[in-house]
Structure formats: structure tokens, C-alpha cells
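Service request form, structural biology core

Requester: graduate student, group of Dr. S.
Request type: structure prediction, single chain
Budget code: on file
Notes: please return the result as C-alpha cells.

Sequence provided:
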Amino acid sequence: MKIIFSGAAHEVTGSKHYLEAAGKRFLVDCGMEQGRNLYENQEIPVPASDLDFVLLTHAHIDHSGMLPLLYKEGFSGSVYSTDATMDLCQIMLRDSAHIQEFEAEWRNRKGKRAGQPPFVPVYTMEDAEGILARFVPCVYNKEIDICEGVKVRFIDAGHLLGSASIEVWLTEDGVTKKLVFSGDIGNTNQPIIKDPEYIHDADYVIMESTYGDRSHGERPDYIHELSGIIQRTFDRGGNVVIPSFAVGRTQEMLYFIRQIKEQGLISGHDGFEVYVDSPLAVEATTIFRENISDCYDEEALALISQGINPIAFDGLKTAVTSDDSIAINASSTPKVIISASGMCDAGRIRHHLKHNPWRQECTVLFVGYQSVGTLGRNLVEGATEVKLFGETINVQAEITTLAGISGHADNEGLMRWIRAFDQQKPDRVFIVHGEDDVTDIFAARIRDELGLDTVAPYSGAAYDLITNTCLASPEGVRVAPKKAAERKASSVYERLVNAGRRLLQVIRHNEGGTNKDLTKFTNEINSLCDKWDR
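Core staff response, request fulfilled:
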């Protein structure tokens, strides 16, 4: 009986954990790495064809996105998930396959002219369809006998529609051990979906740490802030453009706007229109409407009981075709435009950014995290011009954010979740799914405050679950630069990045400081940025 950590070890994405027990081999999650890849992930020790099944915590691509590749490589077992996760994967994995095929087609058009060999997509739509046929839907809070010696139960994690923590009971040679995989733990008081449920006993816990070193702060008054942004933008005669993640964040925005309309918080612009311009978001919104009883919280259910759809209202319009999308900017009437992708790196949002940010009367409103290097991050950090479709766009619009919105629990939310193990404290806690330094910081906090044996394993680490002993504890292998000439520059730049991370930690440690000290600190940072912002 053992576990081997493969993905999301000292990294935030690419979740994948391999287990052997009761004569079976299986995975918990099989996610795609997104953004910057820091460490080499060690492969699981068996071919995909030897895996018996997969347990999936939720539909986000960093947890589910490599399932089609698993099928392509010979996997023929079942994928167990909640009903809503299965429904979301139906659209998200197909969308991911479409992206893989589109990228391959684009690369091959360029490569053919340069005499390069064909570029093969990671997987195809056929692979996505193949794995989707192997999903087995499960309900929350019901024990499921997967096979002799393996029993599981899905518990609402409150992160995304259908998201789950998974309790796993493994029995081998008369010994039973209970593992709890946290999945992504949700933030509390999110609209539409329920708060995360707590689990009280385990032998081992495998826990995420995305926000293990930071706080979301006080919960803002989203309705007041959003209505204020819409009001002043409409009064200027402009559009509010919201880059938004298609699944989860878009539906939350619709929930808030419905309340704004219901309460009449926008004056002088009665019946204003809201466009959702993302085929994936439109499909996801339909799935949200179809999973009411299992996933909606009490507030949303109360609206349903009154005959009110929490994410629909007069003036809501959807754009599915390209012509629908183009027509949105043809009208001069002030409107709200919600479009993917959330970080502005792809999708239809880039067309709306071509038509709106050069207009002083418009607003671009960011409602989610923007990764370093993305177009969204550049805009948030004050870019005065951006390039889109080969054209330089002068940024004149108001660029702002709706702070505090997150589907992840912050450091205190994570601590509440692990403290809930009060009936049986875990023998060991494994910290995964966090940035390199954050995993260590959060593991140390659990050790210090709760006295639990806590480690942050690197990819390839292996543990015997019967004896609670470490079988392998490799150091992380950093991804090597592609060219030797880049190695020195990469090393120096890495030191700069690490210095930036340290600065961010210092900033967080100063939370709660006096206004005088924080103002001085801010001025010093801005002075440094002015010197080096070339």
C-alpha cells in the first residue's frame, strides 16, 4: 500500500497522485500543467494501460486536463467523479482538445513552410470523447465500493460546481487506512455553491496550499463595488468589459448583476444589457442550471423556490457565433461584456480589448488572478499600450479590479479545514498544489501550530501507507533551459524572481502595520520600480 506524488508537487498545477493498494493501481486527478513549469514531473511507475481507475476531484483543467492523454496512451478503466464534475468535463475536455488540435494545425502551417516535421497535438477530440465515455457519476456523501479493498466517498469542497474532497479507505492484508484528498478547498460565502464541508478523521491527508501564505482580507461588498463601477462607466457612455473565467467566475458575475438589477442600483440606464460572449461559458451556465439540488447553497435554493433563476435576468444576452460576437461592439449603447479568457491570453476577450480600452469612457474590470506575463497582468500593472492582432492599442480606459473574489480558501480557511480533523488526527499530512516556497511555508505552519507530522513532497516522493515510512524522497529537479547559452541568464533571472518572491513575503508580513510605515514602504517600492521599469 503506497502513494507516489507525481504532479503539483511544489507547483500549483498538474495535480496527479499515484496509489497502489489491494492489488489495484489508480490515480487521484490527472491534471495539465499551466503557466510556468518549475520542476520536472516524474512519470508514474506503470503504463496508462495498467491503471485500474481514476478518482477526480473536480473539472478544472489543472486537475482533469490530461485525462484524454491517459486514454490515448491505453487507459481503459473508469473515471469516478461527481455528477456536476462529469457534466463540466463534457465541455471542458472537449474545449481543451479543440485547443490542442487548433495549436497543432497552426504550428504545422508555419512548420511546413520551414521544412519542419509535423507537430502532433497532445491529444485529439477523439481522445477526449473516449475518456468522457468512461466517466462514472457519483453523488455526494455516499460510500462507494470501487472494488474489494477500495472504498471512496465524495465530500463537497465548495470550490467549483461539483468539486469534492475525496475520502479513500484502502484495505490490504487486513489493515485499513483512510486517506483524505482535499482537492481544491473553496472559499466561504461564495455565491451559488455551498461552503466546503469539513472532514474529521483520517490516517493521511493530502492537502492543497494555493493560498497557504496569504489572506484574502475582509470580504468586500461586491454588489456595492460592482454597481459603482457600472454606474460611472455607463454615465461616461462606455462599456464595462470583464475578462472572466468561463466556468465559475462568469456565473458569479451573473449572480451579482442579477442582484444589482433587482435592487435597482443602476440609475439612468434602465434595462441595460449584459453579454456573455464565450461559447464555453454559455454551456457552463446551462450546466449550473442543471445541477441545482446537489450543489446550490441555501440562498440560491431560496431564490429557486420563489421561481427566480439566480443567474438569469432581463437584458442578459449570449453570443455563440462569431457574428454574434462581432455585433456586440457595433452598438454604441453602454453595456456589460463578459468574455473569456480570464487572463486575456486567448479567446474572444482579445477582440473586445481591441475595441474598448482605447476609449476613455470604458472600463476593463478584472475579477480573477492574473498570472505573471499575461496580457491581463500587464493591464492591471498599468500598461499604457498593448499589442493585439498586430495592432498597437493605446490604453485610455479605466483599468480596475474587483478585489477579494477567489474560489480558493485563503491561509486561514485552509487552517480551519485541517483543524477540523479532531476525531482522529492524521499520522501525516502531505502538502501539495502550491508555489514552491508556499508549500514549505504552509507545511511549517501546520507543524508549528497543530503539531502534525507534515511534509511538502517533491515529484517522485513515495511513502508506504501501512508503516508510514518514506520509500523515496528525491529533491526537486528543476526544468533545464532549452539552450546552454540561456543557462547563465536564466540563473541570474531566477535570483531576481526569488528576490521578488521574498519581497512579496515581506509585504504580507507587514499586513496590519501602521499607515505611516506602510506608506513609507510603498514609496520605496515605487521608487525602485520607477528606476528599473524600462
